[in-house]
Amino acid sequence: QVQLQESGPGLVKPSQTLSLNCTVSGGSISSGSYYWSWIRQPAGKGLEWIGRIYDSGSTYYNPSLKSRVTISVDTSKNQFSLKLSSVTAADTAVYYCATGSGSYRTDYWGQGTLVTVSS
Amino acid sequence: QTVVTQEPSLTVSPGGTVTLTCASSTGAVTSGYYPNWFQQKPGQAPRALIYSTSNKHSWTPARFSGSLLGGKPALTLSGVQPEDEAEYYCLVYYGGAGVFGGGTKLTVL
Q1: Are B75 and B7 in contact (CB under 8 A)?
Q2: Could you read off the pLDDT of A29-38 as tens digits, one per residue?
Q3: Could you report the per-residue pLDDT of A73-87, keeping only the tens digit for each?
Q4: Which chain A residue has the Cα nearest residue B51?
């Protein structure tokens, strides 16, 4: 079974770039047929879909975040990453990485990591 | 900006049946939007329950079922258990990009 673990700074300054990694264990990130996703959740609020990448490199992003988001895969490290630029306090949230064994499935989730945007 | 709307809260008695739905601002949802359902309990990551409208994961209890009702994705819980008290989210795909519903807080009383 695939397991996911998010990592990265828990505190980011306003206007800077938020960078998170998700390490995949129990499977290869380049095995095919998997999409690798990022989702976030502000405290006390609902889930927000950020985007996803296929191991071929094709990506889909939330239109409201598209201008600031980049999702990429590093097959050598069995990781995928999220970069969110020009952050503000509104980007403070728990960030989850997730994946599924099919184009429209999100079977497995990481435990989530809290990122706070503050000076 | 596409919006997916869920019932903010529902209450059900133990052993009862309840149906949660998602309404899309773009109109009727079909199976081609591949709706998913997730359960989230406080302090935990979401857990996948249903994918592609009605397919269950290996860990999904039999009392959970997914369907389309009147053009809306629906999640039905039959024989509700106290441990089903949680927040439930639908996820609908529009041309490859996903949109979550706002969530339904299900109370078992």
Answers
A1: no
A2: 887 778 999 9
A3: 999 999 999 999 999
A4: A105
